[in-house]
Design a protein that fits this description.
This protein is of the alpha+beta class and 689 residues long. It has 20 helices and 27 strands. 36% of the residues lie in helices and 26% in strands. The relative contact order is 0.06.
Length: 689
Amino acid sequence: MLSLTLASLMDEVHAHSGAVYLLAPDQPVLEMAVTAGLPRAFAAPWERIGLSAPLPVSEAVRERRLVWVGGEEEMAHRYPRIAMVLPYPFSLAALPIATATRVYGAVYVTWPGAHPPELSDGEREHLTAACDRLAVRLERAAEQSLPLPPEPDLSAAPLLGQLSGTLGSVEAVRMVSRLPYGLCSLDLHGRVGFANAAAADLLGVPADRLVGSQLWASVPWLNDPVHEDRYRAALLSQHATSFVALRPPHQWLSFRLHPSTTGLSVRISRAGAVRGPNRPPPPPGDAPARLVDISQVLSLAGALTEAAGVQDVVQLVADEIAPAVGSQGLVMLGARAGRLLVLGHRGYRDPPVVERFDGMPLSEPTPGSQVLRTGVPAFFESREELERLYPVLIVNPSTFASWAYLPLIASGRPVGTCVLAYAEPHRFATEERAVLICLAGLIAQALDRALLFDAKQRLAHGLQEALLPHTLPSVPGLESAARYLPATRGMEVGGDFYDLVGTGGAAAAVIGDVQGHNVTAAGLMGQVRTAVRAYTTVGQAPEEVMRSTNRLLLDLGADLFASCLYLRLDPVRGRAVMSRAGHPPPLLRRPDGRVRVLDLAGGPLLGIDGGAVYPATEVGLSPGSLLVLYTDGLVESPGTDFEEALAALGRRLTELGDLPLDELADALVRPRAAAEHRLDDIALLLIRA
């Protein structure tokens, strides 16, 4: 069923390769069920992929829509992991296999680089209809409890099958044998189907040894991933490619690969003098080198570079690496002050089984602490083997049957232990152990960076919290609420600040923005806020507070500027006196719901001109009036006009201004809080008379 559907689909849209994925039972994982057009090894890094992985097939299932990637450049921009492993010109479409009530899997198909950058309407209709039909068939099979037996991958038909008659075939062989250069034919897996005498002579291998084997397996000095990469590039892009190779000791040969959907024709000739890397040929062996191993490591390494914090690393290992190696459970362990830390875990139905190790001394006889202390990996192929060596684990055991404990070593020091658990007894072959240890090295580098990142984040957040007021004071005749959101770039700490100070029967409010999003900006912000408080306490008028703060900023010599808005509030007399230094204008909502932008006179940014003046403006503040003070992060964003954004904020205030202040503050910052990327900090201070 799957193979025929895929073959029909590819034929309808003239695609040259594809695959069908099915959802694994009880796991958020897509498993490759059948491929066509190209060897499965091309997609080996993605044989099993997590639903949350940033890949076209996963995205198609998550969003239940067609995902189209129009070429090499778009692939590099949107899905760099794929472009890193397959840096060739091709287009790809991925679609979910789903009914109205259930998702069963996904399909992807690819075209050579010559395909137009956009998918045609006809191609979209064919793809969608085929996936819908397959989803209905899978639904019927599920309703009838019919198992889906394994299906073989589809390969192309033999090239000679297209020739007319035996006599023509014989004459074609005679013709090729007369040519002065070498010719051989490869199938999609790189196996030699035919080689003329000139090819055998140039390669130095008898023709009967070439036929039926992969070219780089029969010819030891071609056993190089660089050469195999050219074969992959030709098949995937369907463009002719070439390379030169050194036949020991000093004969350079030129290889020209002409691809089709059935395989490749290779022309071999002598090359002139070539200056190439002085690289000895790989030693001959029974098994050819597999580029797929390299591509898998490249893909996973690319995934780990995207992780920022520790939880990102845990999630990526759970979504990408654990499914790739067939593991169903994961625990990530670290250490602090001589004790184990459970950094994260996935796949354990009973969390206390894992969490009981959190805070346990490293001296305790557990495999996690032992591997972390010694840096020596441990593999347990059965529960009996584990419990015999570590009896402490007999109490409250997990449901898993096999484990790999991998030391995470970065810069020569252990940073943690990665525990991969398997639901069934699992034999760890030598090759698999080597791959797991290699992956552990990649995880260790990512975890080491993540631990440092989290430490910096804790420092930054602690500094920010120390510099901003924890609560706003209660001022008779006034209600207030404030919100602060850091930028999502850098250290998530910046120079936006606000404050409200009670001064007898009156109050003073300030909001400002020191240039920058780093610890320097935050430290200067703390000094400015403290200075404004001090000048307020000694009774300076608003314009004097601004002049004094401006001189202070220049005296500090920080080479940073700051915008600021300062208000002296008198709720008894119903008025506010304001002074502004290059800050966005405040908004005033009247009791009747009308909103006005207070376009106050003001001076330049603080820290520019020591002689600048900052005139004060008095505004009426009748009961029920609402003042909205904010920093530019609330209204400014790339591609958005400031005036339009300010008008939109005014409309929201008209609609929502009667809400309690805390609810109103949440409503005003909610759109920015939900944004994936905030380029600037946001501070908001609401004051209602």
